[in-house]
Structure prediction request, 164 residues.
Amino acid sequence: GKFLSESGFVVILPDSLSRPGRISNCDPQNSITTNRFPMALPFREQEIAFALNQLRKISWADMSNIYLMGHSEGANAAARTQITGFKGIILSSGFCQTGVIFEQGIKALVINFSSDPWHQGNKSNCLVERADNSIQLLLIPGTGHSTFENESARVQVINFLKAP
Prediction:
């Protein structure tokens, strides 16, 4: 968020884990998903809707230039959002268990490492192509999960956000 803000973008970062009763689905010590909170993705969808509704209240917000970006569990939520009208969607280190089902024709950028310990050798279902070629893929060589610490990922995200 800080990098994007310093690059001239307005950034809104809802904190899903600050909601009452919300627990993490992650075990970071073992790089595994626990699924202890099955309502995580519906909660995330509500948070996306809430953030958009708050943006609509701001007179200077250009609602035709809104991007959705999610990392890990957030990428999974962005990949399956039923909320429409985004200019683009960025999925970082998501697994996308149910595939990529957001609005057809919306441009997207998918960023993953070629080996992500959270995916335990499974290929990310975010790394799919659509018939309309609306999804760009950035596969970073090596092992990792925090794609945004990678310089090529940062450059690609800025270019994606600035593209017409």
Q: What stands out?
A: The mean pLDDT is 90. The first strand starts at residue 26 and ends at 27.
